């Protein structure tokens, strides 16, 4: 039996991504976001509220980084989703994390995050449901510790976590349970 829950943003898993930008004074701004992701081969889409400091930074610098945090940074990453740079200018410094300047875009790369997409902002779309930022991926950086023997990212080594919007939890990701485009191939033979 099913129960009608009404209109809720209930989809699992939701990504836990980190958007990195520079403030006007050159300090690092980092924000956790869950509404967005890959939208094309070399594009990401971020759905954000226009009032975020991060949005102003993207508009000014035309660049951002989008990182996948590891579970070892859950405390700091969650803090980036709680604290607003509009109200707390030293937000990044409080965490003790470290950032270096991207060599490809005008945005920071947080050293402790194992996977980072360096992105150019290509479009800011005002939509009836909010602001959509479209970014072109110009490079991907991965810590060697998350690569397998063939140089590809190993999700189990990434140690990522997902956001649960239904109960406001974070869940570890990483166990492989099947092979894509193969697990259901046997049903093609009917």
Describe the 3D structure:
The longest helix has 9 residues, at 53-61. The two termini are 31 Å apart. It is globular, with a radius of gyration of 18 Å. The strands form 3 sheets. The protein has a 7-stranded antiparallel sheet with strand order 3-2-6-9-10-5-4. It is built from 4 helices and 12 strands, in the order E-E-E-E-E-H-E-H-H-E-E-E-E-H-E-E. With 190 residues, it is mainly beta.
Features:
190 residues, mainly beta, 14% helix, 37% strand
Helical stretch count?
A: 4
Taking all Cα atoms into account, the compactness measure Rg is: 18 Å
Largest β-sheet summary: 7 strands, antiparallel
Order of strands across the widest beta sheet?
3-2-6-9-10-5-4
Structural class: mainly beta
Shape: globular
Q: Give the SSE string.
A: EEEEEHEHHEEEEHEE
């Amino acid at each position: 039996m099913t129960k009608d829950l009404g209109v809720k943003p209930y989809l699992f898993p939701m990504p836990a991504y980190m958007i990195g930008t520079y403030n006007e004074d050159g300090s690092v701004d980092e924000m956790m976001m869950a509404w967005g992701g890959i939208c094309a081969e070399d594009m990401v889409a971020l759905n954000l509220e226009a009032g975020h400091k991060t949005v102003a930074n993207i508009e000014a610098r035309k660049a951002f980084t989008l990182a996948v945090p590891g579970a070892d940074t859950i405390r700091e990453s969650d803090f980036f989703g709680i604290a607003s740079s509009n109200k707390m200018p030293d937000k990044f410094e409080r965490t003790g994390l470290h950032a270096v300047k991207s060599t490809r875009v005008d945005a920071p790369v947080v050293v402790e995050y194992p996977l980072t997409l360096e992105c150019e902002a290509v479009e800011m779309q005002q939509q009836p449901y909010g602001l959509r930022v479209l970014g072109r991926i110009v490079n991907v950086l991965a810590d060697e510790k998350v690569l397998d023997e063939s140089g590809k990212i190993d999700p189990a080594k990434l140690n990522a976590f997902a956001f649960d919007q239904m109960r406001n939890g974070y869940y570890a990701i990483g166990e492989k349970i099947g092979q894509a485009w193969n697990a259901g191939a046997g049903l093609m033979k009917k």
